[in-house]
Amino acid sequence: MENRQSTLELGTRPVGKLLMQYAVPAIIAMTASSLYNMVDSIFIGQGVGALAISGLAITFPLMNLSAAFGAAIGVGASTCISVKLGQKDYKTAENILGNTVVLNTIIGLTFGIVTLLLLDPILFFFGASEQTLPYARDYMVIILAGNIFTHHYFGLNAVLRAASKPKAAMYATIFTVVLNTILDPLFIWVLDMGIRGAAYATILSQIVALTWQIKLFRNKNEMLHFQKGTYRLRGNIVRNIIGIGISPFAMNVCACLVVIFINNGLSHYGGDMAVGAYGIVNKVAFIFVMIVMGINQGMQPIAGYNYGALQFDRMMKVVKYSMISATVITTSGFLLSQFAPYPCARLFTTDRELIDISVKGLRITLAAFPIVGFQMVITNFFQSIGKAKISIFLSLSRQMLILLPLLAILSPIFKTDGVWMSMPISDAASAVLAGVMLVIYMKKFSLQHKTMKHEQE
């Protein structure tokens, strides 16, 4: 009853307090998650070398591709669960949980096996050189071998947030960060395992956290728990999960393609050090992006529940608060990149050439960062209420329709600078487009809300 009551509060408590309640644990968890990725890079850069940083940067597209499949299930399932809880359809919510476990098992195993069999050609295609390939391969072999655990870990964390347990999701993420931070220096330096040690630390941390998540979902006193009869795949549930999850899937696939083009462009015009610099720029930006994702994760169950409960005024209020918060965060990232880029780069490496390229990359790449948060919230909002096609369009517009043409046009003219410049320009253009889409749909929601009130009177 306590869990059901906490879910019902999504439609009754003040929206600002609810967003704080859900977003703060998610922000802490996502900040911890970004530090989790950052810690690997710092230990690898300082403990293995500058080329290892470049090798790690080559793995980003493959990591994004893995995340794409994970997000297709995790985000799709958590959104479906939020809406069903808003409709008070608890039986279907439990069936969604069971189907989520099965789908993550199938996709996690399949992706890991296929990519392991084709790993070297994939890494060369992603921009690896003869010098960086050994580092990228050593890291990804271990990550891919544990891919099924990664999928389950992230998937169940998404479900925990949808099931009104944001703090539990936060604890799981923080635990993986702390354990990974302890294991990284032990494996990399003490046991002299190099970049492979960072990969082992990552997978082992996730396995331990996953064990705790499974224990939570086995508790029959919880509103959502593992239950016999829920694991048989149901066509309508799978279609709904994938139908909503296709949006974050497309975002991550597009991110994968974009990083491939960026890595290849930087490798062609600037060499391995330019690729490594992009890895550093990515890690710094990732911290602020992940905080915004935490805001989005806090918004998602509130927006999804109130959309399902037809409370459009509350839904739009949480979107407004989220946009303001996200803009403050990304503006902070912009200020850091413009006024303190050197300490950011120095954190990862002592190599002077790599630091200089990273400083320049940070200043150019994050030039339009203040409006990135606004665009991210709007894209996630449409995803949260099941408007997958709009969310996909907004994501594709930034990465495929704007960024890739800019890379093709600017890189031959301005060389390495052209690769860096294409990113802030695409950010600005896509933010304008997202704002237009939101205004259009706000008018539709407002009209629908007035019609409902008129019918009730």
From TrEMBL:
Which family does the entry's similarity section mention?
Belongs to the multi antimicrobial extrusion (MATE) (TC 2.A.66.1) family. MepA subfamily.
Q: Coiled-coil ranges per the record?
A: none
The domain of life is Bacteria
Protein name (Swiss-Prot/TrEMBL): Multidrug export protein MepA
Q: Which Pfam families match?
A: MatE
Keyword Repeat listed: no
Q: Which UniProt keywords apply?
A: Antibiotic resistance, Cell membrane, Membrane, Transmembrane, Transmembrane helix, Transport
Membrane topology, as annotated: Multi-pass membrane protein
Localisation: Cell membrane
Keyword Iron attached = no
- Any transmembrane segments, and where? 18-36, 68-85, 97-119, 139-156, 168-191, 197-217, 237-262, 274-295, 321-342, 362-382, 394-414, 420-442
